[in-house]
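Q: What would this chain look like folded?
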Amino acid sequence: MITPILDLRHIFAGYGDLMVLFDINISVYPHQTLILFGRNGAGKTTLLKTIAGYIQPKQGEILWNGKNITKLKPFERSRLGIRYINQEKKIFDSLTVRDAFILAKYSYKITSDNIEEILSYFPRLRQLSNSKIKYLSGGERQMLNIALGMLGNPQLLLLDEPMEGLSPTVVNTLISTLKEIKENKKTTILIAEQSIHIVQELADKVALIASGKIIDIISREKLTKEVLTKFI
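A: My prediction, written as structure tokens:
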């Protein structure tokens, strides 16, 4: 029997007195791509931030490889191998691509890095390694955002709508890249998304979320466009 890498048990969470998540129960298994699918305001980002430690749940437990990490801070979870990549793409514009990797390495307190391996998945970033970030396109910035999150070989990538606002060409490139990362590095990926196309391309399982509640969890084999359409 395969043991979950991440277990969320009866999670209630929100902002101050505003409750957003209600009794969330999800198990994420190793080397799986699980997509949180729902419209804006469904609670997807709040759930990712709760897993990453930026929001403390009001109730419930978060287990990481069987260990209770509910009270751990974000940097402590990052060092365990949980890496949250938000959708803002905010990176110091004055740095070069190569400098951004070096800064991130020290930020994550990684003693050895895998920069060259990461760049093998992002050949465009290798070409731009000496370019300043302010000259990168939106798609190139998102590639860098994801690449920086891969430093130190995290076990779990949390991606918050990573392809929002990007051109179809860049979206297809990132889809292919994430497939390669999952296959070659055996990385577990949890994505908040509301694009049916991306779900159909990447998901092993889909957790349907609405009004802060998990409505259902569906395997890839049972996914249909008709089911997904109800949640956007």
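Residues 6-92+155-229 form a domain with the Rossmann fold fold (CATH 3.40.50.300).
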